[in-house]
Amino acid sequence: MTDVSFSAPKGVPDYVPPVSREFLAVRETFTHEAQRAGFEHIELPIFEDTHLFARGVGESTDVVTKEMYTFEDRGGRSVTLRPEGTAGVMRAVIEHNLDRGQLPVKLVYSGPFFRYERPQAGRYRQLQQVGVEAIGVDDPALDAEIIALADRCYKSVGLTGYRLDLSSLGDAECRPAYREKLQAFLRKLPLDEETQRRAEINPLRVLDDKRPEVQEMLVDAPLLLDHLSNSSREHFEVVKGLLDDFGVSYTINPKLVRGLDYYTKTCFEFVHEGLGAQSGIGGGGRYDGLMAQLGGQELSGIGFGLGVDRTLLALEAEGVSAGSPRRVDVYGVPLGSEAKRVLAGVVNNLRAAGVSTDMSYGDRGLKGVMKGASRSGARYCLVLGEQELADGNVAVRDMNNHEQETVSLSAVQAFLEERL
């Protein structure tokens, strides 16, 4: 052996068993809920042209100015590991003319995203998300559907202690005048130099500053909800009414601001207080001008991104399991080389029939291999020893009630399929 050792890069988590089973359960549950709502899978590149994110996310955002993993490839092209999913989805929709078919285009995606941030509990440099986008229809009913879907995703994994914050960011009719009014207010405050700079570039982002001393200064700040255009206000009222009809609880947060520039009208965030400073577990909103900004049609859209990492931490804080799937249904225990050969054939046939099956290897004794069977989480254990082999049978043990019965090798597959 050498003295060399390696560990995962800073801020990049590994998910190993048994936590990886929880991870898969959360991700697959979120994806399944989206597919049940009519969303189809889209697979996106891990990296894109840097200009896509600069233009789509917003050149003045912290994501673009401070947090992107950007590098030049060997062809001299500037590329960036994706920091979020919406811009890439919109690029794909435009490139493949998906917006020329039936609307809305409803897409779901999952995978890793990358932000160069200071790692801490709940904040990673590689973060895992499940996201959806519904593109092509400006309808408040679609906003309510998207929010209710996200709420259902969290409920489906057993999460309960979260809060849904809801607001509206207005539209092109009311935002400019409000922006000027907010800037005038912020210029009178004794803000630090960096916050003053942010106030000039994107004053709404100052409202999202989590520092208590800044929030204290913002108590009397003008609120966008008080300056909505008639159309934005009507849109927001319909969204709230539908969420009430759906039984989705929410809290109006007039200072809610998403970290990306493309959001308009409805915006929302799911918050879990059990996570401390990094309390956001997912969120999203409407983006009515993004497609045109990226070279496509003037079509609206709405979507969300749900953090798988943060959801796992929230479940842990509540002491709740996501209902991780059983690793295998059947576990084979051969006692002897000939038993191993015969049982390997049984295992192979069970797998071919769609029964998840594993078996022990090596030369451990019965006590050791039965520990392995127990750890596998299997419902049934097949024990094949010399006597069973001579009789053409196999012992089938129910790992829940520990009852055991003898079944012929020729009938064991049908026996198990009937009970699983």
From TrEMBL:
Pfam families: HGTP_anticodon, tRNA-synt_His. It catalyses: tRNA(His) + L-histidine + ATP = L-histidyl-tRNA(His) + AMP + diphosphate + H(+). GO terms for cellular component: cytoplasm. It is found in: Cytoplasm. This is Histidine--tRNA ligase. GO terms for molecular function: ATP binding; histidine-tRNA ligase activity. Keywords: Aminoacyl-tRNA synthetase, ATP-binding, Cytoplasm, Ligase, Nucleotide-binding, Protein biosynthesis. It comes from the Bacteria. Residues 25-325 form the Aminoacyl-transfer RNA synthetases class-II family profile domain. InterPro entries: aa-tRNA-synth_II (IPR006195), aa-tRNA-synth_II/BPL/LPL (IPR045864), Anticodon-bd (IPR004154), Anticodon-bd_dom_sf (IPR036621), His-tRNA-ligase (IPR015807), HisRS-like_core (IPR041715), HisRS/HisZ (IPR004516), HisRS_anticodon (IPR033656). The keyword Metal-binding does not apply. One of its GO terms (biological process) is histidyl-tRNA aminoacylation. Its EC number is 6.1.1.21. Belongs to the class-II aminoacyl-tRNA synthetase family. Homodimer. Gene3D superfamilies: Anticodon-binding domain, Bira Bifunctional Protein, Domain 2. L-histidine binds at E84, G85, T86, R115, Q129, E133, R258, Y262, Y263. SUPFAM superfamilies: Class II aaRS ABD-related, Class II aaRS and biotin synthetases.
